[in-house]
Automatic annotation (TrEMBL):
InterPro entries per UniProt: KDZ
A Pfam family recorded for this sequence: KDZ
Stated name of the protein: CxC2-like cysteine cluster KDZ transposase-associated domain-containing protein
Species this chain originates from: Dendrothele bispora (strain CBS 962.96)
C-alpha cells in the first residue's frame, strides 16, 4: 500500500467518528445495516416528513403548500479533479455511499449505459462552456465533481455528490439528483440548475430509465425547474421569464446560487485530493463536506433570522409601493382591467404556452413609429405656441427652449446661427411686449427689488435675451413683497398656472421615459451594424433632450409654486424630482421606476408613476404598464412568501431539534431501537447512555436557543402578515364598492 500505517489509521478514525456521530454504535446491527447517505448531516430547516413537518402537511391548502416544497440547487466544479493514481484495491473506500458521495457500484453501472451520449447546450452562452469542460482530461480519473445541496441553506444532500468523468453530462447529474431524493416524499421539488432550460428537456424520459416510480410520485408538475438569478442573464431572452425565481409562485426570494458558495469552501482541498487514491479521496471529501454542513447548520438560525428582519421590511415597502401603483392605475383604467391582468398571470402560471404577462411584444417598424410620434409632438407644440403667443407664461417655455438649443448645439453651422438669431429676435419682442403688461399687473415692482435687480430690469442684455430675468410674482421673495408689488389675484393666478405647468411637465417626463426605455430595449435586441446603431443613437438623443427639458421645466415650476403657496398637500403628488428628498440630483433610470439599484427583487417604483394616465389608442404604453404592474405584484408576493418561508424554516429547525433529542433518547440501552441490557456490559452501557444523553442535551439546547432568540421576531412577522390583508380580499372589497356606487348612480339617473 502506498499510504503509511498512521494515515490508514486516520482514515479509519474519521470513518468511525462519522458512524459514532450518526448513532450507529447504539444499534444492534451496527455498521452493517447503515442506509445510503445516513452518515450525512441533514438540513434541519428543509422539510423532512416525520421530523419537522406538521401531521397534516399533505393536506395543506394551495395558498400555503409552497411552505412544504423542497428547494434544491445543482451544479458542478472542475477544480476537484483526480489523477489516475493508485486503485480501489490499494486505496479502498470505507463506507462507500454512506455519507455524501453516491454509491460507486450503482453509479458506475448507470454510467456504462450512457457512454456514447453527447450532451450539448443550444442556449446562448453555454455551448462554449460545455466544450471547455471536455478539455484537459487526459491522465485524469475524475474531471470534476457534481453536487446537489438544499437551494436555500447550502447544506449538501446525502448521496448528492458524485465524480464527473468527462465534463458535466446529463447522465451524471441525473443520477446525483435521483440519489439525493430517493426514498423521500415531498409535495413539490424546485430545482435550481444553471442549465435547467436544457436539462429539463426529456427529463422524465431519462428518469424513467433510472426510477419509473419517480414520475408516479411527483407527476410532471411536481418538479419545477429554475435557473439561478446570476446565471439567468447569460441565457437567451426566451429563458429569462419562464425560468426566473422572480416570477414563479412559492419561490420567495430564493436565488439558487448557494451551491456556488459551497464550492468555494470545498475547492480549497483541490490540490491535495488531486493526487490521492480513489478511496482516500472519497473519504476525505466526505469529511470535508460534512464539516461544511456542520459549520453551516451551527450558524443557520442566525442567517435565517437576519434574512427575516430584512424580508419583513422589504415586504412592507413593496406592499405599500404596489398598493399606490395599483390605486393610481385603477383611476386611470378600471378594476376590471386590472383583474384581467391578474387572470392573465394566473393562466400563464398554470401553462407557460399562454401569453406571458411579463413581456411586451415589439413591432418591426418601432423606430419609424417613435420618430413619427416625436414629429407629431413638435407640430403640436408649434400650434400651441402660436395660440399662446400673447401668454406671458409662454415666455418661459420660449426662453428655456432657446437656452436648451444653445446648450445642445455647441458648434453652430451657418444655418443654425441664422435660426438662433431669429429665435433671439422673436424672444426679445415677446419680452418687450411682456414689460408693457408688467407695468399694469405689477405696478410697484420697483419697490421690492434690490438695486442689482433694478439694474437688470432697466438695463437688460438685449444681445442674449434668454438670460433676461422676467421678475414674476414668484421672484419677489416674501408674500408681503408680492402683495405690495402685484395687483390683487396675480400671485394666485401664477400659482394655478405653475401647478398646471408642473403636472404637464411631469406627464412629459413619463412619456419620454417610456419612449427611451422601449427604444433602448428595441435597439439592444434588434439593431445591428453601424448604420442602424447611429440611427438609433440619434433617436435616443432626441428623446434624452426632451426628457431633460421637461425635468428642468418641472423643477422650476415646482420651486415657483412652493414659493407662492408654501408647503401643503399638493406636495404629495408633486414631489421633488430626485432619488432622495435631500438630494435634488437627477436619478431617473429607464421608465423612472428605480429608486435604488439592487436587482429585480428589490426594485421600487418611482412616485411619478402613481398618477399615470392612459389614453385611448396607446396600446404600447398600456402593455408596458401591464408588465410593470405584474412585476410589481410579483415582487410584493415574492417578499410575502419569503417572510412565510423564513418563519416556517425557523420553526422547522426548532422542531427538528426536539425530534432529534427524542431520537437520541430512544437509542439508550433498553429502549426500542437500542441494545438490550443483557447483550452489553455495564461499562459499555454507561458509555452508550452517556453519549446518547449528551447528544440529546445538545439538540434540546439548540431548539431552546432558537426559540428564545427568534420567537419575538417570528411573532412580529406573523403580525405583519395578518395586518396586511390578502390581495383577493382587497379586490373583493373594491368590486363591492364599485357595484354599490354604480347602483347609486343608476338610481340617481332614474
Amino acid at each position: 500500500d502506498r499510504y503509511p500505517g498512521f494515515l490508514r489509521s486516520i482514515f479509519q478514525w474519521r470513518h468511525l467518528k462519522m458512524l459514532k456521530r450518526a448513532g450507529r454504535g447504539h444499534f444492534v446491527d451496527g455498521i452493517a445495516c447503515t442506509h445510503p447517505g445516513e452518515l450525512s448531516l441533514p438540513c434541519p430547516a428543509c422539510p423532512i416528513p416525520g421530523k419537522n413537518l406538521p401531521d397534516d402537511w399533505k393536506q395543506a391548502s394551495p395558498e400555503i403548500a409552497f411552505l412544504y416544497a423542497l428547494f434544491l440547487a445543482m451544479d458542478a466544479t472542475f477544480r476537484l479533479r483526480n489523477k489516475v493514481v493508485s486503485n480501489n484495491y490499494r486505496s479502498p473506500t470505507l463506507g462507500d455511499g454512506l455519507a455524501y458521495l453516491v454509491s460507486s457500484k450503482p453509479y458506475k453501472e448507470h454510467l456504462t449505459k450512457h457512454t456514447s451520449e453527447d450532451d450539448m447546450s443550444s442556449c446562448s452562452g453555454f455551448a462554449a462552456l460545455f466544450l471547455a469542460n471536455l478539455k484537459n482530461v487526459k491522465g485524469l480519473r475524475v474531471s470534476g465533481v457534481g453536487g446537489v445541496c438544499c437551494g436555500r441553506h447550502r447544506v449538501w444532500r446525502g448521496n448528492g455528490l458524485g465524480d464527473l468523468q468527462k465534463g458535466e453530462r446529463y447522465c451524471n447529474m441525473d443520477f446525483m439528483f435521483w440519489s439525493s431524493i430517493k426514498g423521500e416524499d415531498h409535495l413539490c421539488i424546485i430545482v435550481s440548475y444553471d442549465i435547467s432550460c436544457q436539462w429539463s428537456r426529456n427529463f422524465w424520459t431519462r428518469m424513467d430509465a433510472i426510477d419509473p416510480s419517480l414520475k408516479i410520485k411527483y407527476t410532471e408538475r411536481g418538479i419545477v425547474f429554475m435557473i439561478p438569478k446570476f446565471h439567468l442573464r447569460a441565457h437567451q431572452p426566451s429563458c429569462h421569464i419562464p425560468f426566473s425565481f422572480n416570477f414563479t409562485p412559492g419561490c420567495g426570494q430564493t436565488h439558487g446560487e448557494v451551491v456556488e458558495e459551497g464550492w468555494a469552501q470545498s475547492n480549497k482541498a483541490a490540490a491535495q485530493t488531486k493526487e490521492m487514491g480513489p478511496g482516500t479521496r472519497a473519504m476525505t471529501l466526505d469529511d470535508i463536506f460534512g464539516f461544511c454542513n456542520w459549520r453551516t447548520i451551527e450558524n443557520l438560525d442566525k442567517v435565517l433570522g437576519k434574512r427575516l428582519v430584512n424580508a419583513v421590511k422589504e415586504y412592507d415597502e413593496q406592499y405599500e409601493d404596489f398598493i399606490k401603483f395599483d390605486a393610481g392605475l385603477e383611476k386611470a383604467l378600471t378594476r376590471k382591467v386590472l383583474n384581467e391582468w391578474e387572470q392573465m398571470v394566473f393562466d400563464w402560471e398554470k401553462d407557460h404556452s399562454n401569453p406571458c404577462p411579463y413581456e411586451v411584444s415589439e413591432e418591426d417598424d418601432f423606430f419609424k413609429r417613435i420618430q413619427l410620434k416625436l414629429a407629431e409632438e413638435e407640430h403640436e407644440r408649434l400650434i400651441r405656441g402660436e395660440a399662446a403667443y400673447s401668454s406671458i407664461f409662454f415666455l418661459l417655455q420660449c426662453r428655456r427652449s432657446l437656452g436648451l438649443f444653445i446648450t445642445t448645439n455647441k458648434g453652430l453651422t451657418p444655418t443654425q446661427q441664422l435660426e438662433l438669431q431669429k429665435r433671439r429676435s422673436s424672444l426679445l419682442k415677446r419680452i418687450l411686449h411682456f414689460r408693457s403688461l408688467q407695468v399694469l399687473l405689477m405696478p410697484r415692482l420697483s419697490d421690492v427689488l434690490s438695486p442689482d435687480d433694478m439694474n437688470q430690469l432697466e438695463n437688460p442684455d438685449h444681445l442674449h435675451p434668454e438670460k433676461i430675468q422676467l421678475f414674476l410674482p414668484s421672484d419677489c421673495g416674501t408674500a408681503s413683497a408680492r402683495t405690495r408689488a402685484c395687483v390683487s389675484g396675480v400671485p394666485a393666478a401664477e400659482a394655478c398656472l405653475r401647478e398646471a405647468e408642473a403636472r404637464d411637465a411631469l406627464n412629459g417626463v413619463r412619456d419620454g421615459l417610456r419612449a427611451r426605455t422601449a427604444t433602448k430595449r428595441y435597439k439592444v435586441r434588434n439593431v445591428t451594424g453601424q448604420v442602424g446603431s447611429t440611427r438609433a443613437g440619434g433617436v435616443l438623443r432626441q428623446i434624452d433632450i426632451r426628457i431633460h427639458s421637461r425635468k428642468i421645466r418641472y423643477r422650476l415650476a415646482r420651486d415657483c409654486l412652493l414659493r407662492l403657496v408654501g408647503h401643503g398637500t399638493w406636495e404629495e403628488e408633486l414631489r421633488r424630482l430626485g432619488m432622495n428628498p435631500e438630494d435634488d440630483d437627477d436619478y431617473l433610470e429607464d421608465e423612472g421606476v428605480i429608486a435604488r439599484v439592487q436587482g429585480e427583487s428589490k426594485r421600487v417604483l418611482s412616485w411619478i408613476w402613481n398618477g399615470v394616465t392612459i389614453n385611448k389608442g396607446e396600446d404600447a404604453f398600456r402593455d408596458a404598464v401591464r408588465v410593470e404592474w405584474c412585476k410589481s405584484r410579483a415582487r410584493m408576493l415574492r417578499w410575502k412568501e419569503e417572510v412565510m418561508l423564513l418563519t416556517e424554516e425557523l420553526r422547522r429547525m426548532q422542531q427538528y431539534g426536539h425530534w432529534k433529542g427524542k431520537w437520541w433518547i430512544a437509542r439508550t440501552v433498553g429502549m426500542e431501537g437500542g441494545h438490550s441490557p443483557e447483550t452489553v456490559s455495564l461499562e459499555l452501557r454507561e458509555g452508550l447512555d452517556a453519549y446518547a444523553w449528551q447528544q440529546m442535551r445538545f439538540q434540546e439546547d439548540f431548539a431552546v436557543k432558537i426559540r428564545e432568540r427568534w420567537e419575538q421576531l417570528g411573532e412580529h412577522a406573523r403580525k405583519v402578515l395578518d395586518r396586511i390583508p390578502n390581495l383577493s380580499t382587497i379586490y373583493l372589497e373594491l368590486e363591492e364598492e364599485t357595484s354599490v356606487s354604480a347602483g347609486r348612480d343608476a338610481e340617481q339617473s332614474m
